[in-house]
Amino acid sequence: MINIDIISGFLGAGKTTFANMLLRCYISSGLRPVYIVNEFGQTGLDAQIIRADGFDAVEIEGGCICCTLKDDIAAAITEVIDAFSPTNIVFEPSGIFIFDNFSEILKQPGIREKCRLGNVITVVDSVNFSLSKATYGSFIYNQIKNAGIILLSKLEKTKYNTEELICDIKNINPDVFIISKIWSEWDNDDFAVLQGPKTVPRMEHHAHHHDNLRSFTIKPEKPFTQDAIDRFLACCRSGVFGGLYRVKGIVMTEAHPVLLNIAMRDVSLEKHKGISEPTLTFIGQMVNEKAIVNYFELWPERICPL
What we know:
Strand content: 25-35%
Distance between the termini: 55 Å
Number of strands: 12
Helix content: 25-40%
Shape: globular
Mean pLDDT: 83
Low-confidence stretches: none
Radius of gyration: 19 Å
Largest sheet: 7 strands, parallel
Number of helices: 9
């Protein structure tokens, strides 16, 4: 049977980073994993990142498995089985995923005979946990409640009291297994937990509404200087682009492509390994598409009306 691991977590929690780590672990153990990602925005960025590191990846864009893409996910799983004959599938749903409908996918003909639920992992962003819980608590609650394993991300960046964070998580899911270790310090014993016997959590149903969450994608045509990046980040923080929870994409600098990730208060910039056209996706409440388009037309000044 093929184990299908689910790696959930709110927008920008670190799901793709951990998926990369897990795929490496499986390959080093002689397994044949394939990565499937369901992205809320119109971009295949996460799959591009995984492919740039040499893994097989399939993306499903432009929606949410919980609402409109159940048939697409089922078709993708079937196609992956036929094309790659994997031993493991690592499935990363969008950040606004809830678990209600995934069990139905596993019951479909052609899947139920070949697949079973593996690890059910939720990545909890230790930097943005309080803010994201206050803003989109229903998604955070559902993902934690239905997890078998919780991984705390960004512990090297957080000022949050880890014991308080674990207590908050245990109040939601008293039985969940929590790993609170900086990811760069993981060793084989940590990954052994994920390859051991599976404890499948009892899925709890929950109302699913995200009508006020929108995404918008744009392709910046000009390279960024460091000054332009600083201005852009200031503009994102100012609220002129709307209530942003996530900005992700690839921008060109004068030297090389850069992978930009903004998750609420957390910002990261790193050199991108792959070859991709510049793309930025904005996710949030009342995303101001006109302001974003106008901003990128103001070249080279890129003035932000703070």
